[in-house]
Amino acid sequence: MLGLGAAGVAVGAAVQERVDRALSPINRFLPVGGGFRYYSVVDRVEPRDAGDYTLTVSGRVRDRRTFTLADLRALPQTRIIRDFQCVTGWRVPKVPWAGVALPDLLDAVGASPAARAVRFRSFDGAYTESLTMAQARRRDVLIATDMLDGPVSHDHGGPVRLFVAPMYGYKSLKWLDGIEVGDKVVPGYWEERGYDIDAWVGRSNGRDDEPT
Ligand SMILES: Nc1nc2c(c(=O)[nH]1)N[C@H]1C(S)=C(S)[C@@H](COP(=O)(O)O)O[C@H]1N2
Ligand SMILES: [Mo]
Fold first, then answer.
1. Structure pTM?
2. Which atom from ligand 1 is nearest to the alpha carbon of 33?
3. In this structure, which residue's CA is closest to atom 11 in ligand 1?
4. DSSP per position, the chain
5. Is the CB of 172 under 6 A from ligand 1?
6. How far is the CA of 36 from the centre of ligand 1 (A)?
């Protein structure tokens, strides 16, 4: 009985690994962070030192600006606690996130009130995402410098990632280094491959948030 059980677990793990590989080129459980999986659509992302990191905000803005990590930390800070939900089924409850609320960053560069969309780029060289301006103006969309009460680790997309609280995880682009204010919602990496452009998780997420 015991032996069979162990074999069953081993087979289960092998099947899970194959499912994981089919879902994404790179996919493994992260050793920390209670339930997160590591996702990357490219084999390897060159780590970027916090000291070398920059985020460029361009497009329909009054002031095109390049922010260092220190610049981002000098802007008004927002902290929220929200679940993280991947569309493939795993969910991490009550994750603390902190950084700059996207509307505060858009105000800092003077984003045009007439602009319709915001596009995000990753320094992995492959992944992009977009939001409508109405979505980007939500206060629960963060330019996250911290998660799980520490700096965003490289595996989680640090030094800086996007966190779109009300939407599935694929909107939360990792290794963020470019934001472009424009007029078009351009389908992102997974959206080109069939995922919905509007990725709302549903009304249950974010009920038990803490004041920021
Ligand atoms: N650059 C980049 N960002 C990404 C992804 C990716 O593969 N590359 N995967 C997305 C998906 S589908 C999920 S669920 C989360 C996973 O975040 P994690 O790796 O920190 O668990 O990142 C999102 N952001
Ligand atoms: Mo995901």
1. 0.86
2. 21
3. 170
4. -HHHHHHHHHHHHHHHHHHHHHH-SEEEE-SSSTT-EEEESSS------GGG-EEEEEESBSS-EEEEHHHHHHSPPEEEEEEEE-TTS-EEEEEEEEEEEHHHHHHHHTB-TT--EEEEEETTSS-EEEEEHHHHT-TTEEEEEEETTEEPPTTTT-S-EEEETTB-GGGS-SSEEEEEEES-----TTTTTT--SS-B--TTTTTTPPP-
5. yes
6. 10
Going by their DSSP bridges, the two strands 176-182 and 117-122 should be labelled as: antiparallel
Convert the pLDDT of each residue in 153-208 to its tens digit. Answer: 999 999 999 999 999 999 999 999 999 999 999 999 999 999 998 899 975 444 33
Any idea which fold 46-193 has? Sulfite Oxidase; Chain A, domain 2 (3.90.420)
Domain chopping of the chain, boundaries: 46-193
